[in-house]
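To the wet lab folks,

You asked to see what we're planning to order before we commit. Fair enough. Below is the target structure as tokens, and below that is the sequence we designed to fit it. If anything looks off to you, flag it before the synthesis order goes out.
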């Protein structure tokens, strides 16, 4: 065999091996994204027929939670931080944050349940608001989030053109698994609302920002249909929030937010939180190099409070 032919064969073999390796890695990533991440540790006592309200939390990084526990501790009293860290006896959460931090079952909603164990998300302020307003009622938060993800592909729901996104499929599976576990433990849970903090990754192109409205309408409709058997008597409320009005980071944020506004006007069961009007900030933490893409600790707490207020307004109507 000529030397040139041998070299060609060796190169071809190397290329094939490289493709197999890359393919294996990509397949592994896909398998990780689609694997059964929903095994639930049996952490709860028997419910004995106790009713419980369920709040869903989904979206990208500001839903996952990139706000620092350490800054929260600096910004609140020692007593309040101890309450945050210890969690709430009547508010439990099953959470999955980007595959980096997950509970594998229901635990008290507390600090350290964000993108990493050093971070927290809207669940903390949400839990605080629910506990303050209804200390004798039982709540479960089901949180499925993934940072840096978009609605036009990864969260894309079945009613939209294109392949249904793996995050949409996983969200539905995660919620169903969580709800079935609660039912198996003899609770009577009903889903009251979905809190949605997402849209930053759809703001990088005019096309995706413009199509956000139809994708979001379809997403809401599909969630309500796929989870209908677990819904409250009035259905599942959808509580959305504006992304930050920061075109340096989120280029077409105005288009995304306009789409959110149009969807909120589409149904009485939809509501939109104007995070910009409430003055939520991203410019203060970390002090030496602020993370302009993610909410500061007290703004993250406020976002959770606002989600809680809106959800409460909906399920109050059914009582």
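Sequence we intend to order:
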């Amino acid at each position: 065999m000529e030397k040139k032919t041998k070299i060609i064969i060796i190169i071809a073999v190397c290329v094939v091996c490289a493709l197999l390796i890359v393919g294996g890695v990509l397949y592994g990533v896909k398998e990780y994204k689609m694997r059964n991440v929903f095994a639930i540790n049996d952490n709860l006592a028997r419910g004995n027929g106790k009713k419980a309200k369920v709040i869903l939390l989904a979206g990208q990084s500001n839903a996952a939670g990139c706000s620092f526990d350490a800054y929260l501790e600096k910004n609140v009293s020692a007593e309040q931080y101890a309450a945050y860290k210890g969690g709430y006896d009547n508010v439990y959460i099953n959470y999955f944050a980007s595959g980096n931090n997950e509970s594998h079952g229901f635990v008290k909603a507390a600090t350290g349940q964000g993108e990493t164990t050093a971070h927290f998300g809207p669940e903390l302020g949400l839990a605080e608001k629910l506990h303050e307003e209804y200390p004798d009622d039982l709540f479960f938060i089901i949180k499925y989030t993934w940072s840096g993800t978009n609605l036009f592909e990864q969260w894309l729901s079945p009613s939209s053109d294109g392949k249904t996104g793996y995050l949409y499929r996983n969200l539905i599976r995660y919620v169903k698994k969580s709800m079935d576990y609660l039912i198996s433990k003899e609770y009577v849970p009903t889903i009251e609302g979905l809190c949605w903090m997402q849209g930053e990754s759809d703001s990088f192109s005019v096309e995706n920002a413009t199509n956000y409205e139809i994708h979001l309408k379809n997403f809401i409709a599909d969630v309500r249909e796929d989870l209908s058997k677990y819904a409250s008597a009035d259905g599942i409320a959808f509580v959305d929030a504006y992304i930050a009005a920061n075109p340096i980071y989120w280029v077409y944020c105005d288009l995304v937010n306009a789409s959110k506004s149009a969807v909120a006007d589409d149904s009485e069961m939809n509501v939109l939180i104007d995070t910009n009007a409430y003055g939520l900030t991203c410019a203060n933490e970390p002090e030496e190099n602020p993370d302009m893409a993610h909410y500061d600790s007290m703004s993250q707490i406020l976002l959770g409070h606002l989600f809680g207020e809106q959800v409460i307004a909906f399920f109050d109507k059914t009582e």
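Structural context that might help your review: The chain has nine helices and ten strands. The chain has two domains: 1-35, 42-316.

Thanks,
Computational group
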